[in-house]
Specification:
Layout: E1 2-8, E2 11-16, E3 28-37, H1 39-46, E4 62-69, E5 81-83, H2 94-97, E6 135-138, E7 146-147, H3 163-174, E8 181-185, H4 189-200, E9 205-210, H5 213-220, E10 225-228, H6 229-232, H7 236-243, E11 249-254, H8 264-275, H9 278-288, H10 294-302, E12 303-311, H11 324-329, E13 333-336, H12 341-348, H13 350-353, E14 366-369, H14 373-381, E15 390-393
Parallel strand pairs: 8-9, 8-11, 9-10, 11-12, 12-13, 14-15
Antiparallel strand pairs: 1-2, 3-4, 3-6, 3-15, 4-5, 5-7
């Protein structure tokens, strides 16, 4: 089969690799029909190379059609259309029972002290072959795949793999009161969708912050009050307070994470670590890694006293300094973590069956063949060509 493989920093290639096979009686093999490129994929493209090996298959936002099933699979069958959640969860352990599938005790990567394994990611999360490929082996066939109806285009359902549940959880964790206010930092796929969900769920004011014109215009068209970071810079918090009677918003979602602009020293450090041999780079990242914290610091500044900061952007630093004095003084609540995909599917799926209140049908800005994936990664990393969300078609 053809699959997108990691070969080095800013070097991904579509290659011919062996087809996956059923290994366990509960496995299914899915023929992928669509697979998204995620902002987290750029972490692999840019920063997390020390935890990857050449040839690793990327991608964690796939959907497709079941091609083969193991002997014990009864929940889905050949020809069924399914979305594959990005976190690999058994559905039966204590954590899955708590709705914390991202902490699944069956697939936790204990070697690194990490939560549930992920498709198409690094050694930190199991190094499981991903879904930017023609075929994908999916374990836990009775509990993991999300069965969806035939008929509507893939765009209607594919975001159940990551974007929708990640954005839904970000809004849930933000705990915006009815008619309340929310600031979303970063209007990439997750931030954009989080803003849409917040408005759908009754937020009175949603402020979106970004520095890419296309993203700002896209959010504004959905009713988001946008702030251009190129204009406001370090004064974003003041601008948010100006819009909220001097208080700040009830909650802030940091949908940026480690890719935040600014913090030149931390950016230089990340670049330097990426140049080290893998063992040395891993040791430094695990003991002394520092993220660019511009977005998180802005979130702490812009949220009102007694408010909530919800972090959906991925951070990887081991010794990130936090402004704990300010956070304590403002009496903030802080919630974060990988999305528990399966936990949110029952709430989201009804919004996808008939009407399209979240605008998923037109959410993708680009549809490209799998063979164009290397160019798509480069374009997405540069925030060029109006690219916000790309779906690859194997």
């Amino acid at each position: 089969m053809r699959a997108l493989t990691w070969q080095g920093r800013r070097d991904v290639r579509v290659e011919t690799v062996p087809d996956p096979v059923v290994r366990e009686p509960t496995d299914v093999i899915v023929r992928v029909t669509s697979s998204g490129i995620c902002g987290s994929d750029l972490h692999l493209y840019e920063v997390l190379g020390p935890y990857l090996d050449p040839g690793d298959i990327l991608g964690h936002e796939p959907m497709g059609v079941v091609e083969e099933t193991g002997a014990d699979v009864t929940a889905v069958g050949r020809g069924d259309r399914v979305v594959v959640p990005f976190n690999i969860s058994c559905g039966d352990c204590f954590m899955c029972g708590q709705g914390l599938q991202s902490q699944c005790e069956t697939t936790q990567v204990r070697e690194y002290g990490s939560g549930a394994a992920l498709f198409g990611y690094t050694k930190l999360y199991g190094q499981v072959p991903g879904g930017q490929a023609e075929l994908l082996r999916v374990p836990f066939g009775n509990t993991l795949p999300v069965k969806v109806p035939h008929g509507p285009p893939d765009d209607r359902f594919v975001y159940l793999s990551d974007v929708l549940p990640t954005a839904w959880q970000a809004v849930e964790y933000a705990a915006v009161p009815p008619g309340g206010s929310l600031t979303v930092l970063g209007l990439g796929p997750i931030g954009d969708m989080a803003a849409r969900i917040a408005l759908h769920r009754g937020a009175g004011l949603v402020i979106g912050v970004d520095l890419v014109t296309d993203r700002l215009q896209r959010a504004a068209a959905r009713g988001v009050h946008t702030l251009d970071l190129r204009i406001y810079g370090k004064d974003v918090g003041d601008a948010v307070r100006d819009l909220t009677g001097g208080r700040g918003t009830d909650a802030v979602i940091d949908a940026v994470g480690m890719e935040a602009h600014g913090a030149t020293a931390a950016k230089a450090g990340q670049w330097a670590v990426g140049k080290l041999p893998d063992p040395a780079a891993r040791a430094l990242m695990e003991r002394a890694g520092v993220d660019r914290l511009s977005a998180l610091l802005t979130a702490v500044d812009a949220v009102r006293r007694g408010g909530t900061v919800s972090v959906s952007g991925v951070y990887g630093g081991a010794v990130d300094p936090l402004p704990l004095l300010k956070m304590f003084d403002k009496q903030l609540q802080l919630r974060m973590g990988q999305a528990n995909v399966r936990n949110w599917v029952p709430s989201i799926l009804p919004l996808l069956v008939d009407d399209d209140p979240l605008g998923v049908d037109g959410f993708a800005t680009h549809h490209l063949p799998l063979e164009d994936a290397p160019k798509a990664y480069e374009t997405f990393q540069k925030k060029a060509d109006g690219m916000v969300k790309t779906l690859l078609r194997p």
